Amino acid sequence: MIPAPTEHPVGRHDAQPFIAADVGGTHARLGLVQVRPGGKVDVLAYHRYACGEFPSLAAIIDDFVTAHGADRTHAVVAIAGRLEGDTLINSNLQWPVSVERTRREARIAYLALLNDFEAVACAMPYIDVAAMTRVCGPLQAGEGPALVLGPGTGFGASLCLPRTLQQGVPLRVLASEAGHASLAAGNARELALIARLLERWPHVDNERVLSGPGLVNTYTALCEIDGATPRLDTPEAIVTAAQAGGDRHAQEALRMFCGLLGSLAGDLALTFGADAVYLAGGIPAQIRPFLLESDFAQRFRNKGVLGEVLARVPVWLVDHGQLGLVGAAAWYYERHSGF
Length: 339
Description:
The chain is α/β, with parallel strands linked by helices. The protein has helices spanning 57-68, 99-106, 116-123, 188-198, 212-225, 235-244, 248-272, 282-286, 288-293, 296-301, 307-310, 323-336, and strands at 18-23, 27-35, 41-50, 74-79, 82-84, 87-89, 110-115, 132-136, 146-151, 155-160, 173-176, 276-279, 315-318.
């Protein structure tokens, strides 16, 4: 029997476990979570799914519920893309997503969807500083907005606004689609890269380069520009070759990735007046040593007279495998618990 849909979740004040999920273009991470008073998220059960192995989001949720005996009353899903009414707009998922159809097929009474990087931003206040690595800038951030960026299967970005002191008011997060804004070059080689990519697509956005598939695009284009034959065709192979130093085009592609990421992070920090930047997503943590030794920091600060401003903005690398899931649970808790 399919539970009747609820307009608003009920019974959340009793802190009963509920389903939280983080769904990207490659993997879906589902957890049975419980939120303690004050917002600490406990993950009671956890499973990671390969999205391509399931016909729908509902099928993944149903599998998790069946395997872990979770209650079908409430679920919150952080998912890559932009929700327009009932329909999710996304270019990286394996299947279309309708909120109502997913709720009905998964037999969930209340289902909420939010942008995955909105969830990541909501997780930041609950993440231990021990899970972070300073990339550049001072140790202390100001009290202004915090920018959260993440290249993975796509490119996510959100802005966490300063928390109000008013009791019971949730953290305010501005989700964005910065991954689909136009990519900006910072040197002649990057201009050549963009020119090459424009031969394939009429619009070269940040995600065409600053993502896992984008890393493959960059590597392939650099090989073609130099008249070389590409040998590698996955992000994992390119990262491995670059870190091992055995393929100069792989090394250049990863260096360019880090430089363009630094440049974009600086652009967005200036645009929004951010006092801190957090790097999440699947790729930065995988390339941590390479990123720290790259020209990310120099490109981040390379903004003319405003370089001095960005020198005072700390950039942190966040390595937490359940960041989106924790953020989805925190988003839900802050809006429906009366905390």
